Amino acid sequence: MATVTVDQAKLVLNSFAAIFQNNLISKDLVTWNKHSAEMNDRNGLTVVEQVTPDYTTTFTNGVVADLTSGVQNTTFGSEQYRLRNVVGTSMGWDDFVKIKDIGDARESEAIKAAALRLAHDIDAYIMRFAALASNNLIGDGVSPVGTWDDIAAAYTRLKEEGCEDDSMLRAVLTYGDKQALGKDVVEATVSNLYALQDGVYREGWQGKISGIPTTFTQQLPSFTVGTRLQTSALTAGTADSAGDYEDYCISAAPGQFLTQILNMDIGSGTETVLDGEVFTITGVFAYDNRAKKALDHLQQFRVVGNFTASGGLAAVRVYPAIITSGPYQTVAQAPANTAAVNFVGAPGAVLKPRFIANKNAIVVHTADLITPATGISMRKPLTKLPMSVRMWQDSKFETGEHRVRFDVAIEPNVVANARRRIVRING
Fold first, then answer.
1. 226-256: pLDDT as tens digits
2. Helix, strand or coil for residue 318?
3. If I label 172, which of 102, 125, 204, 416 is the partner at 20 to 30 A Cα–Cα?
């Protein structure tokens, strides 16, 4: 067995890290946050973040507002963010030891293959999370994005939801959409929002549609919905609509800020409703709590978690919670007690979401992985992302087997109340 020197190991890790970060398209799609503490490979981190309160205003004529009954409550909410996933790849020892200098490292197909696989799979992981995070869905959930109007409708919905900063918007579509949109795609002159450079093997942000940086990819997910009836019904709409912000603003688990339980009749047996499904409730319109007016479309709700009915009845967690008054109002009116619930997609349908997102809506949490107690390891901080790659060389005494692995700690989380800053799109 050839001996691997420290300099050789550094060459391999530096080359791997450079190829990995140069080909990670999602680095420009979402926001990244690195924790200062190291992460144990077998135990995750959970962080609780405070949510700033909001207030209503009063207008009076000739006198100040009467506050005899008291001032508004200052209510701080909270959201939880979790980091528990370790994503890794590995390579053969023979490929590893033959790298003697920087030229070998640059030309190594093994390093390239391992780094590209890690970048590809992390992109798919993050894109799936982002594509299914939103409660807003434009179109039928399946059809291609074929016209400029499809993009414009999603953009309008983002504005109605209070997403103001256009510079932070990113669109993720399929290559079929690119063909259908044709001349509406303004071609970009750079890749990955950076100038073209050595070690870039995958195209990133390939153009703009309506001024929005857009990537076209085959990595968007297919999403199979549950077996629930497409037209279901609430069973306690009145009681389930009686809460206020204080009831829903403390997240009990990651992603549960401003969520609540809705009781539904979704069939007759053990039907399922799955995390990421979208539905409307008959007669319940969305509400703009900045302009203080009802909007022209029904409020869309997202299922948070997976649920199985018993005798057709299920208690389903949804976003947003139904709040009918105050600065956090989400709907124009409460639903009727047994109002119809209309899901996107027939039972078991396969949906194919594309999306536009504000990149601040999703935060990918990372941390340095710990230094192992056995073998030889080193970490390489990336220059374009707050993340590090750990390389770990190890041998098995019993068999003489020699192994090399590369790992990163990573998990996407949705920012408190930011699901509304993402819109799924179809034709």
1. 999 999 999 999 999 999 999 999 999 999 9
2. strand
3. 416
For the chain, the C-alpha Rg in angstroms (whole number) is 25
**pTM of the predicted model as reported, rounded to 2 decimal places:** 0.89
- Alpha-carbon gap, residue 394 to 204, rounded angstroms: 35
Identity (one letter) of the amino acid at 85? N
Question: SS3 letters for the chain?
Answer: CCCCCHHHHHHHHHHHHHHHHHCCHHHHCCEEEECCCCECCCCCEEEEEEECCCCCCCCCCCCCCCCCCCCCCCCCEEEEEEECCEEEEEECHHHHHCCCCHHHHHHCHHHHHHHHHHHHHHHHHHHHHHHCCCCEEECCCCCCCCCHHHHHHHHHHHHHCCCCCHHHEEEEECHHHHHHHHHHCEECCCECCECCCCCCCCCCCCEEECCEEEEECCCCCCEECCCCCCEEEECCHHHHCCCCHHHHCECCCCCCCCCEEEEEECCCCCCEECCCCEEEEEEEEEEECCCCEEEEEEEEEEECCCEECECCEEEEEEECCCCCCCCCCCECCCCCCCCEEEECCCCCCEECCEEEEECCCEEEEEECECCCCCCEEEEEECCCCCCEEEEEEEECCCCCCEEEEEEEEEEEEECCCCHHHEEEECC
Segment 90-114 mean pLDDT: 68
Identify the residue whose tokens are 């994005």: 145
Residue pair 27/21 in contact (Cβ under 8 Å)? The answer is yes
408 or 42, which is more confident: 408
Residue 140: its pLDDT value, please? 96
- Helix or strand run (H / E) with residue 233: strand 231-234
8 A C-beta contact, residue 293 and residue 311: no
pLDDT for the residue 190: 42
Q: How long, in residues, is the chain?
A: 427
> Which is higher by pLDDT, 391 or 201?
391
Whether the predicted pLDDT of 63 surpasses 60: yes
Report residue 54's pLDDT band, with 50, 70 and 90 as the boundaries: confident
